[in-house]
Amino acid sequence: MQQKSLDFHIEQNDYFGTLATLLDLIRQDLDRREYRRHAATLANLCDELMYLQRSHRIEEIPVCPD
Length: 66
What we know:
Layout: H1 3-11, H2 15-32, H3 36-55
């Protein structure tokens, strides 16, 4: 994901959901190609990202000048 797109999804508070969707598309492709173990790993990651989407928000940490 490019920086501009990343910033947009963070601002819209849908980064975790967007990432989960992209990973799920990869998981589906792996599943079709019978890479079941890898597909299962991605399915678990997608579930974790959707949990984060529902319960967390990304906030910028202010950088203190040295």
